[in-house]
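Q: What does the predicted 3D structure of RmlD-like substrate binding domain-containing protein look like?
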Amino acid sequence: MTSNNKPTKTALITGATGLLGRQVVKAFQGLSVPTELSTKASQEWTWDVNGTGFSRADGVNVLKVDLEKEEEVERVLGEVNPQVLVHCAANRFPDKVDADPEGTRLLNVEATRTLAKACASRGILLIYISTDYVFSGKPGEAPYQADAPTCPTNLYGVTKLDGEKAVMEEFSKAGKEGLGVVMRVPVLYGKTEEGRNEESAVNVLLGAVLKAQEGKKVKMDHWALRFPTNTEDVGRVCKDVAIKYLSTSETERASLPRILQMSSEEQYTKYEMCKLFAEILGVSLDNMEANTEGNDPNASVQRPYDCHLSTKALKDIGIDVSTQDFVSWWRRELRAFRH
């Protein structure tokens, strides 16, 4: 307990140097959640927050841990002793996954299994960040409920689904089913690190808009439906879920859902997002061509048409699924570009 009588828990966030991981850390620290969206329970808890990373970890603010090595996972869990672990680390870019299938499986599946096994044996709540790409995304199927049949379109979706299964299996083996939770999210956007817009499949579209200003013809997808969701909102929900599950008795926790889904309800194609960015920046999009053809059948990575996630499972357990307005957020973010 702290001096102000607020209960203190410890959280460990993997992938804490990444686009989502940074915001999950801030959410648990109470640094990025608007007061109006903060639950009463959230305001009554305080957290000691630790993050892990690898290539960008400094060993001070972010612990350097190779999640593919069981001994390193065991060591950090023993040192930090968290009550909740939010597993954000992953290879989450479909094209990069196809380029390195073995390395991706080690991180997305085997490292997840190692974490799940270690967390289950210690009674640690694990929130595994998964993806809307576990679904086929065929026209007419969405929105997908959390218990809808899965059928990934590409290898990225396959590895993330296998990660989900690993979490379920390891917690079931340990008899700790209520502590292994999957959180599926769609394409994310938010604050990038030092202008690294390639961290997000949304933020990176700014580069395409600027390229179109150079007189180069740019083709942009105007077929697949996306539901871009802000990393700050996902971070807040992860924190609220942690509080919900940790504050529920073991008996009652068994009745809570094991698969949750968080998503904005705002729908855009990539071309529509580019058009919006161009309007905000006050530039022309004459050199960008809207591509409505869908997947190139010869492309190595096939992408789903519509994987809109239903957030009903979160709502049913009392979690606020409000999200920031996409246009308003980007108007604020791009203000500097206009001056």
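A (community wiki): The structure tokens above were generated from the sequence. The first helix runs from residue 19 to 29. The radius of gyration is 20 Å.
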